[in-house]
Amino acid sequence: MDQSMIEQLGDNLYDALAARQPIAPLTASHPDITIEDGYHIQQRMIARRMEKGEKMIGKKIGVTSKAVMDMLGVHQPDFGYLLDGMVYNEGEYIESDSLIQPKAEGEIAFLLKKDLQGPGVTTADVLAATEGVMACFEIVDSRIQDWKIKIQDTVSDNASCGVFVLGDRLVDIIGLDLALCGMVLEKNGEIVVTGAGAATMGHPVNAVAWLANTLGRLGIVLRAGDIVLSGAMGAMVPVQKGDNLRMVIGGIGSCSVRFI
């Protein structure tokens, strides 16, 4: 795909984000689009946001569960960029009309204290580079109409990242087995999803190592101070105005958010 088309599709996604109006799947009009093309389109979309003053603060990992991989017909995760305009803190509210078609996922967020530069990053390297972990909601959102996405669509669309909410407790991972940490997610006081860290590529640390190595092959470094969302621990939950969400991850803590 030539550069002019990459820029046009990235601009289309940025305009959809800004107007909060979804567009048709990119794969419908460009069936030959590749995953590599998708990452170039993603970079264009992110560049447009950064031109408006947003700053990069980390990365997110998506498509970490076998169920989602099977749905999209792929056998690898994807990644997107986190910007400071996406972050909310524990207990804050999100204006529903700031998103298009949001869904919530419970995740473990990593805060790095050292750089991670792949390839060759091991799980031990990830553990040594981690300042701590937090309970986190990723509010995924798609600029693609009705979530009719293929892997190329979601990659182009910054891995369907909307916003994210960080819990207020940073926990040292020493002594924690993140694969066994259980999650309970409540919507309006009712349990709607349960899960565990093992749902994320067998172990959330595996996901972060995959990210560091994948980025390393692209010449990108995970930096000290970066936040990394390691992937969903359970199914996505549709949300709308008036919903209150709370999730608890054993040994790590809780996170809550409401939509107005």
Write up what this structure looks like:
This protein is an alpha+beta fold and 260 residues long. It has a single domain, classed as Fumarylacetoacetate hydrolase, domain 2 (Alpha-Beta Complex). The chain has 7 helices and 13 strands.
Fill in the keyword field for this structure.
260 residues, alpha+beta, Fumarylacetoacetate hydrolase, domain 2, 8-stranded mixed β-sheet, 5-stranded mixed β-sheet, 7 helices, 28% helix, globular
In short:
With 260 residues, the protein is α+β, with helices and mostly antiparallel strands. Helices cover 28% and strands 30% of the residues. The chain has a single domain, classed as Alpha-Beta Complex (Fumarylacetoacetate hydrolase, domain 2), CATH 3.90.850.
Q: Supply the number of structural domains.
A: 1
Give the helix proportion (percent range).
25-40%
Q: Helix tally?
A: 7
Strand content: 25-35%
Q: Number of DSSP strands?
A: 13
Top CATH class:
Alpha Beta
Reported CATH architecture: Alpha-Beta Complex
Question: How far is it from the N-terminal to the C-terminal residue, by CA?
Answer: 41 Å
Biggest sheet layout: 8 strands, mixed
Q: Report Rg.
A: 17 Å
**Shape, please?**
globular
- Could you state the order of secondary-structure elements as H and E? HHHEHEEEEHEHEEEHEEEE
The helix/strand class is alpha+beta
Rounded mean pLDDT is 95
How do the strands and helices of this protein lay out in sequence?
Blueprint: H1 3-19, H2 26-29, H3 35-51, E1 56-62, H4 66-72, E2 78-83, E3 87-89, E4 93-94, E5 103-112, H5 123-129, E6 130-140, H6 151-156, E7 161-166, E8 182-187, E9 190-196, H7 204-217, E10 227-232, E11 237-238, E12 244-249, E13 253-259
Parallel strand pairs: 1-10, 3-7, 4-13
Antiparallel strand pairs: 1-2, 5-6, 5-10, 5-11, 6-7, 8-9, 8-12, 12-13
